[in-house]
Amino acid sequence: MEELSNSEPAVDSTGAAEAPAKRARVSIACMRCKTRKNRCDGGKPKCANCIANDAECIYSAVRKMRGQGKSKKQAANSGGPSLQVRGPAGSASLELSILHHDSSPAQTRTSVDRSLMQENIKNGSAVFPEFLLPNVYGKNLTELRTSIGGEGFGDKITPLLPLAVSRRLIQNSFTDVMAEHQLLDLRSFVALLNAQYAVSSVDPGGNPARWALVNAVIALALRVKTAPGSEAELSDIPRAYYRNATTVIPDLILHDSSLLSIQALLAMAMFAQGTSDTQAFVTLSTNASRQLELLSLRRLLEGGGIDEEEEERQKQVSRVAHVLEKTAIEEYSTRSILRSN
Question: For the Zn(2)-C6 fungal-type domain, which residue ranges apply (predicted)?
Fold first, then answer.
């Protein structure tokens, strides 16, 4: 948004008109508006959207430029710092950033040596999964949709994405996914992701809480990285992984609670919050809070302390649970009033 001044230009002592003041411009949206893809007015200390929703308003640090910008000729030779992958003309797309390796000026994006595209998360090099290359994107998207399970009870599970794609997706989206609710850190989640793939990509593998958390975060990441304008066309994919997570809800609620099972319920609640399914959001949020109370009570009765790291994790989860339950109660009360009227 920009604000224009209606006042006349100022005149200095010589009678010459001074240059008008620069127009105010919002340079960055708060993390909540960015995650929800809402227009943000950039208000400080809180934007209008966060004030209206009584939500915490957080702005990320302003990005600093690295040296002088390139000329058009240099930019044409070196290529840009990011790439948006699209299938055939008019098709939906997913956004993933990619840092280019050194290459000759004549080399084009589509002809980049395939060795530069190989997955190499461990050493931290910037890579681009072959799954999303333009020449195979359409085919892979069709196959992915074919593998998606139905929405009815007992329908098949949707297999997890190829590990290379999941790692890259999480690496590029985790900060945005956890911008509003810091449920866990990236290192902890990547460990869970690797452990799940090591056991199975098509079932819980004996750990329902881990399965639910991995699928729920993948669903959130896919939703965050869907290109603007493609949300409706691609919504079935993140929803499929959300459904994977919901298949084990009875296991999470009926068995002894753990910090991992509570994190899984909260991650599902975070996804449901961004949909029209208010009942699911309320149910998941309130159940997560109840499970947290049971966990705290059990630890109190059993005696014996927990280590400092585990205690900090529990505090972190408690903060998220409190915020989501408060939002759920307010949402439920509002809907109840509207229905009664």
Answer: 29-59
Per DSSP, which regions of the chain are E strands? Answer: 2-3, 24-25, 82-86, 93-97
pLDDT in tens, 268-318: 999 999 998 989 999 999 999 999 999 988 888 877 667 788 888 999 999
Task: Kindly provide the b/e burial profile for residues 27-43, where b requires at least 16 CB atoms within 10 angstroms of the residue's own CB.
Answer: eebbbbbbbeeeebebe
Tell me the pTM: 0.63
**Domain residue spans in the chain?**
1-6+23-61, 79-103+112-340
**Axis crossing angle, helix 208-225 with helix 163-177, rounded to the nearest 10:** 70
Tell me the C-alpha to C-alpha distance, in Å, between residue 172 and each of 25, 113, 117, 178, 232: 27, 22, 16, 12, 22
Q: How crowded is residue 193: how many other Cβ atoms within 10 Å of its Cβ? A: 20
Give me the residues paired with residue 86 across strands: 93
Q: Alpha-carbon torsion 241, 243, 244, 250, what sign? A: positive
CA 114 to CA 191: how far, in whole Å? 28
Tally DSSP H helices, then E strands, for the chain: 13, 4
d(CA 155, CA 167) in angstroms, rounded, equals: 27
Tally of residues, the chain: 341
Question: What's the fold here for domain 1-6+23-61?
Answer: CD2-Gal4 (4.10.240)
Residue found under tokens 């505090």: 315
**Pair 277, 228: CB distance under 8 Å:** no
Peptide bond into 105 cis (omega under 30): no
* Angle between helical axes of 259-273 and 278-302 (0-180°, round to 10): 160
User: Residue 279: how many CA atoms within 13 Å on its side-chain side?
Assistant: 0
